[in-house]
Specification:
This protein has about 500 residues and is of the alpha/beta class. The protein has 2 domains: about 160 residues, Leucine Aminopeptidase, subunit E, domain 1; about 325 residues, Aminopeptidase, CATH 3.40.630.10. It is built from 15 helices and 20 strands. The strands form 4 sheets. Strands 7, 8, 9, 10, 11, 14, 15, 16 and 18 form a 9-stranded mixed beta sheet that branches. The protein is elongated and about 80 Å long.
């Protein structure tokens, strides 16, 4: 779907439907709604007075405009009480309105920016409208062959701007389209079945991104990894017939030689648990164990398209975790790329093994900071639920900045402690570390393990096991792959580059 911006007035636009947002309990109309009400002979005022539409959060009512010519339908979208209004409610309201119109087989709609909504955040309001509309309509349909004609596709949303507002709204919408495209790209990668998203196919997607300006891609193959001593990654890959790949994407938007931000994403394209096999129930969802890797690819895609003035290196260790004659066994000891040895107590704690080698490799770039993103532990989902990512790290400023980016985007994180006594729990009797400390505090001990491979670099770990996939529709996040935390990462990179420009 395309989101475009046009100069003019909403009451002059010829379209199938117009969307207007309302706050709950307000009888006096303002902004675009007041203009449409006047032109339609008080139609909207009548509906509001009747009580048929209360403007509760995400409530949608479509009315037929009768003699009001440019648009046949008006979709009223509820934002809830003005005193409780935030960007998330705007995103959800526009997603719901667009989904409702798609259900009516509408192909195009128009809306306008209402300057009275959060007047001190006008650019963020426009971005939220575009994000909600763009992300809420996502569908994953490449494998649908039966009744294909029934698939409803929305073609265009036009945001109508007064001439004075046109250029800044156009700028915001262009940037937002880039970000929503990147989120949908990540959702596509995560939604793909594991037979169609092998390590090799994931690497091919990364190589395609290298066609973009200032992006380069290298893929380390099994032989090269063996020569480098990446035995933790190779150990996990040993049970699979699919060759592992270490995907390296470099985006140079900043000055030459400037230290990059390293993004490291877990790329388990299928996780059976290996010899420590998972239960059969819901094992099909383990195709999503590469959501961290998908987020890294998508964040670099967005950074390149936004031309962010920052250097980024993205590392995605990609493999399957299968059981087979050559597979890793509980009790095996691996010597990692860092030289440190790891006792494998549970082959289903494999994400931290492949990340250990990728994090150590990231240190070659002398990064300004490292962020790793991984569907690491079920324990994190138990602790925080399905909508919040766990955040742990070694750098308070980075933790604060990522927290700010999370609040701005609605991709929520919560910090968990990484105190010294947790580190004692991953010490092995016969190797340097063991790959699991058992059930208690599992999200924290998983992060404590990763911290052993990041050297002195400022580092933050995001455990996205909960929010990377949803089993129910959540506003602008339809059921399935969510694309979390692409928007958070892009916001962090935008703020980071803005702070750097400011310092210089």
């Amino acid at each position: 779907m395309k989101i475009t911006v046009a100069r003019g007035s909403l009451d002059d636009v010829k379209t199938q439907a117009i969307i207007l947002a309302f706050c709950e309990g307000e009888k006096t109309l303002s902004g675009p709604a007041a203009e449409i009400d006047k032109k339609s002979g008080g139609l909207l005022s009548d509906v509001i007075k009747s009580g048929d539409f209360e403007a509760k959060p995400s409530q949608v009512l479509v009315i037929y405009a009768g003699g009001f010519k440019p648009a046949k339908r008006i979709a009223l979208a509820g934002l809830g009480k003005r005193s409780e209004l935030n960007l998330e409610k705007i995103r959800r309201a526009f997603a719901k309105a667009m989904q409702h119109l798609r259900g009516l087989k509408i192909k195009e709609a128009a809306t306008a920016f209402d300057a009275d909504l959060l007047p001190d955040k006008k650019e963020k309001v426009v971005a939220a409208m575009a994000e909600g509309a763009g992300l809420g309509l996502y569908q994953y349909t490449p494998y649908k062959t039966v009744k294909q004609d029934d698939l409803k596709n929305f073609l265009q949303l036009e945001i109508v701007a007064r001439p004075a507002d046109y250029s800044w709204i156009q700028d915001v919408v262009q940037k937002t389209n880039i970000i929503t495209d990147a989120v949908c790209f990540a959702r596509d990668l995560v939604s793909a079945p594991a037979n169609e998203m092998t390590p090799g196919i994931l690497a091919a997607h990364a190589q395609k991104l290298a066609k973009k300006k200032n992006v380069a891609c290298r893929v380390l193959e099994k032989g090269k990894m063996k020569a480098l001593g990446m035995n933790a990654l190779l150990g996990v890959a040993a049970g699979s017939h699919q060759p592992p790949k270490l995907i390296i994407l470099e985006y140079t938007g900043g000055k030459k030689g400037e230290a990059p931000i390293a993004l490291v994403g877990k790329g388990l394209t299928f996780d059976s648990g290996g010899i420590s096999i998972k239960p059969a129930e819901k094992m099909d969802e383990m195709k999503t164990d590469m959501a961290g890797g998908a987020a890294v690819l998508a964040a670099i895609k967005a950074a390149a398209d936004l031309k962010l003035p920052v250097n980024i290196v993205g590392l995605v260790p990609a493999t399957e975790n299968m059981s087979g004659g050559g597979a890793l066994k509980p009790g095996d000891i691996l010597k990692s790329f860092s030289g440190r040895t790891i006792e494998v107590l549970n082959t289903d704690a494999e994400g931290r093994l492949i990340l250990a080698d990728a994090l150590s490799y990231a240190l070659k770039y002398k990064p300004e900071a490292i962020i790793d993103i991984a569907t690491l532990t079920g324990a994190c989902v138990v602790a925080l639920g399905e909508e919040v990512a766990g955040m742990l790290g070694t750098d308070d400023r980075m933790i604060k900045e990522i927290g700010e980016a999370a609040r701005a985007t609605g991709e929520l994180v919560w910090e968990l402690p990484l105190w010294e006594h947790y580190h004692d729990l991953i010490k092995s009797d016969i190797a340097d570390y063991k790959n699991t400390a058992g059930r208690m505090g599992g999200a924290i001990t998983g992060a404590a393990f990763l911290s052993k491979f990041v050297g002195e670099s400022p580092w933050v770990h995001l455990d996205i096991a909960g929010p990377s996939w949803t089993t129910k529709d959540r506003g602008y996040i339809p059921r399935g792959a969510t694309g979390v935390p692409v928007r958070l990462l892009v916001e962090y990179l935008r703020q980071y580059s803005a702070r750097k420009q400011h310092v210089h």
